[in-house]
Description:
By secondary structure, the chain is an alpha/beta fold.
Amino acid sequence: MNHSPRLSQKITNIAESATLKVDARAKALKAEGRPIISYAAGEPDFATPQHIVEAAETAIRDPKNYRYTPAAGLPELREAIATKTARDSGLDVPASQVVVTNGGKQAVYQAFQTLLDPGDEVLVPSPYWTSYPEMIKLAGGTQVDVFAGADQGYLVTVEQLEAARTEKTKVLLFVSPSNPTGAVYSPEQTRAIGEWAESHGLWVISDEIYQNLVYGETRAVSIVEAVPALADRTILVNGVAKTYAMTGWRLGWMVGPADAMAGAANLQSHLTSNVNNVTQRAAIAALTGDQQPVEQMRQAFDRRRHTIVTELNKIPGMKTPTPEGAFYAYPDITGLLGQEWEGITPHTSLELADLILEKTNVAAVPGEAFGPSGYLRFSYALGDDPLLEGIQRLQRFFGIG
Ligand code: GLU
């Protein structure tokens, strides 16, 4: 008789993606007829630009796309990604150092699997995206949080990182622009953190999925551009989902040193093989075609960013720093806790998120999904009208407006 637990420890130890869970709940309530306005998923409301869709239409009629391609991706796409990486991340790499993945998520997962052994520590600036902890656990690593709150613009310092570093620290996870906070490290801060990581021989996994969604004068400088010496120990993660409104197409990539990319491609060859060829062809059109639609979407996000920050900041008890990138506003809502609102007294951001969903039909993701309680994440990648209406509902609920 085998007495092992029914399911593996590693599966028992992970939870469902909190962002996808809140999004699914909001969509289900909407389907039931509730007038839900959802700020939950980080998903552009725009259609994928037409020329990308047309490239996919052409591709689906071409029998060569009905076959396997190399697990690491179509050579033309890997070339296009190498060109984009040189342009936007300041890193010259051959196409052989690119692995095309099923969304940015698979790229992050494979990066941790490629680098971590049991006991290795990963420094994770917090608040952090909901899937990182589970991916680190699945790779046998140990997450070490480095917290930066709204008072420091959600940006960790070298001193904080150094205080968290031990002999076991192997990887720094660097995310700029950040999901969930929208914070972007300045070129100087990026260089200081990169030089620190370099001097201690750390690996860096740099999640650059929001790299092209920055506003005003801000530029999200890649950590390998700021510190070229890091290139031999950095894995860049990126994808088309956010920039090109292609979340459902599932196409991401990783770029890094030859040995790490060969290892990741081997892993992928046993896991998913190549990404759907039609999607790969669409991604070539996205990266090499007209970038004007991207600029129009970016300008729309910028406009919505101003609206949401201005309106959220009218609610006493919410402190919303102005995000410089991505499409999330991340207010500190501790000022709203411990008070009674229509008969309910929330003590955590989880309870506050439930309260506003119940009473105002507004869905936001609670801070608990991203580490510490005390925050709500609002995606502003939704239409201008619902965006304003949802916040006005909150203003009325919390007694203003
Ligand atoms: N990355 C997006 C978000 O944070 C999409 C959902 C997910 O994959 O977590 O909302």
